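Please decode residue identities from the backbone states below.
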């Protein structure tokens, strides 16, 4: 991206930024979660419906692997991290896939970014595509967004290069279409996209029961959700916002709504999202060309100063722009949160140690093997 192009894009990102819009009062309502007992009651029906759709070629996978993984601080794409002895996160995900659909192979899109595209492709090749048919793996790069300082002036990485970063995981469909893969969806008759993050090593992907649930319940989008442990747990929860499905953070929800319970004493806003979604592709295709809202996020942005010296800030010094998955949900008429057992399906690798870390994920993988 040239500096001139970045200036124009920055203007556009600023105009779409939600934070630059006037605040309005949002109408928040709960959305019913498909809880485990109910799910289990219909599991055979769901599995059958999901497997039928898979056999008909209606499902494809889309791996979100364009993130910077800054919290992990690993020098390389997060998916290449050796989470187990001789096993990368990517390999773990392919193992999970086989556990769900055996040796069947379905189209597998991989979203990278300018920062990790080459390294990701080389790793897949070096590992012989984890035994998968390389003809079914479609890499594409996500869009990059320029970064600016707190006065909304473009920051430069070097004299002629703007500071840029991947524009958030919600831009996946726009970037997929830009890569020309809309045709692949249409030609192959792909009706459902299972969109998942790179860092949940317990993610069940292409899960026939999950797919069957969304089909049987006549919904157009779904997410695997873990139940909030207590009202104040800081996790994005599913809700309806101004009549559309959405995900709301604890601080936005407020103490009162976060603590509301139904007649059975269950939290009304209980479904904490994991990055494992199903989307009806016909609705995604309808969103083509529509402007997505953008979020201006305070971050540390390495840049050159007025004297041309490279600065690596210790504290946030500017804004990066991100499109979030919740911004895509706005285009969907309905949404099905499906509860999963946390210990069985949720082991995010965000940090090296502590919560949601390599340490906790290894323990959970070990427990699964036991
Ligand atoms: P996170 O929000 O955890 O971000 O991404 P991250 O970049 O991986 O990690 P930090 O915040 O820098 O430590 C959740 C999922 O969305 C993908 C990530 O690769 C991960 O699978 N993602 C995130 C993208 O594909 N692109 C992005 O721009 C951001």
């Amino acid at each position: 991206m040239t500096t001139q192009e970045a200036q124009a894009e920055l203007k556009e990102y600023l105009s779409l930024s939600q934070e630059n819009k006037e605040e309005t009062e949002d109408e928040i309502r709960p959305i019913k979660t498909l809880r485990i007992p109910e799910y289990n009651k219909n599991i055979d029906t769901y599995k059958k419906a999901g497997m039928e759709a898979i056999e008909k070629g209606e499902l494809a996978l889309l791996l979100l692997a364009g993130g910077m993984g800054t919290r992990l601080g690993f020098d390389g794409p997060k998916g290449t991290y050796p989470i187990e002895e001789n096993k990368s996160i990517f390999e773990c995900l392919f193992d999970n896939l086989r556990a769900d659909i055996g040796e069947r192979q379905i189209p597998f899109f991989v979203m990278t970014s300018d920062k990790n595209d080459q390294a990701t492709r080389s790793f897949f090749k070096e590992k012989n595509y984890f035994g998968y048919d390389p003809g079914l793996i479609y890499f594409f790069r996500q869009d990059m967004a320029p970064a600016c300082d707190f006065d909304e002036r473009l920051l430069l990485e070097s004299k002629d290069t703007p500071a840029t970063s991947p524009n958030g995981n919600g831009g996946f469909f726009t970037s997929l279409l830009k890569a020309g893969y809309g045709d692949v969806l249409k030609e192959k008759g792909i009706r459902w996209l299972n969109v998942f993050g790179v860092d949940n090593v317990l993610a069940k992907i292409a899960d026939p029961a999950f797919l069957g649930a969304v089909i049987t319940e006549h919904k157009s989008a779904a997410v695997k959700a873990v139940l909030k442990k207590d009202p104040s747990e800081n996790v994005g929860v599913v809700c309806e916002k101004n009549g559309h499905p959405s995900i709301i953070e604890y601080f936005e929800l407020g103490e009162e709504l976060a603590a509301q319970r139904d007649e059975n004493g269950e939290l009304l806003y209980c479904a904490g999202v994991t990055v494992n979604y199903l989307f009806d592709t016909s609705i995604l295709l309808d969103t083509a060309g529509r402007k997505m809202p953008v979020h201006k996020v305070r971050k540390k942005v390495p840049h050159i100063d007025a004297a041309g010296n490279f600065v690596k800030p210790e504290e946030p010094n500017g804004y990066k722009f991100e499109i979030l998955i919740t911004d895509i949900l706005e285009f969907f008429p309905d949404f099905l949160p499906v509860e999963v057992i946390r210990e069985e399906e949720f082991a995010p690798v965000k940090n090296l140690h502590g919560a949601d870390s390599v340490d906790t994920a290894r323990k959970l993988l070990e427990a699964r093997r036991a």
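Observation: The pocket of uridine 5'-triphosphate is lined by residues 64-71, 78, 111, 142, 166-169, 197-199, 275, 350 (CB under 6 Å).
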